[in-house]
Amino acid sequence: MRQVEITTEPVELYKILKFEGLVSSGGEAKSVIDNGQVLVNGQVETRKRKKIVSGDVIEFENDKFIIQLL
């Protein structure tokens, strides 16, 4: 599991996918979320603007990320 460090919370889900390089654009991030390909804390998440906070775990394409506030 990889750590993703954020400086402020909350952060919208699609922005984390974009800034971590998991997708090439914000539009692609929104698309994979709409298609149910992203899990947050073990649950399929389809809200693009889901507020992510420290301690949340995001899963996408066999990768797991835990969010940590700096």
Task: Give a quick precis of the structure.
The protein is an alpha+beta fold. Helix content is 23%, strand content 36%. The strands form two sheets. A five-stranded mixed β-sheet has the order 1-7-6-3-4, with no helix packed on it. A two-stranded antiparallel sheet has the order 2-5.
Largest sheet: 5 strands, mixed
Strand order of the largest sheet: 1-7-6-3-4
H/E element order: EEHHEEEEE
CATH class: Alpha Beta
DSSP helix fraction: 10-25%
Mean pLDDT: 95
In DSSP terms (H or I, runs of 4 or more residues), the helix count works out at: 2
N-to-C CA distance: 18 Å
The total domain count is 1
Strand content: 35-45%
CATH architecture assignment name? Roll
The CATH homology group name: RNA-binding S4 domain
Structural classification:
alpha+beta
SSE layout and pairings?
Elements: E1 2-6, E2 11-12, H1 13-19, H2 26-34, E3 38-40, E4 43-44, E5 51-52, E6 57-60, E7 63-69
Parallel strand pairs: 1-7
Antiparallel strand pairs: 2-5, 3-4, 3-6, 6-7
Helix pairs in contact: 1-2
Please give a structural write-up.
With 70 residues, this protein is of the alpha+beta class. It has a single domain (2-69), classed as Roll (Structural Genomics Hypothetical 15.5 Kd Protein In mrcA-pckA Intergenic Region, Chain A), CATH 3.10.290.10. The protein is built from two helices and seven strands. Helix 1 (13-19) crosses helix 2. The chain is globular, with a radius of gyration of 11 Å. The two termini are 18 Å apart. The model has no long low-confidence stretch (mean pLDDT 95).
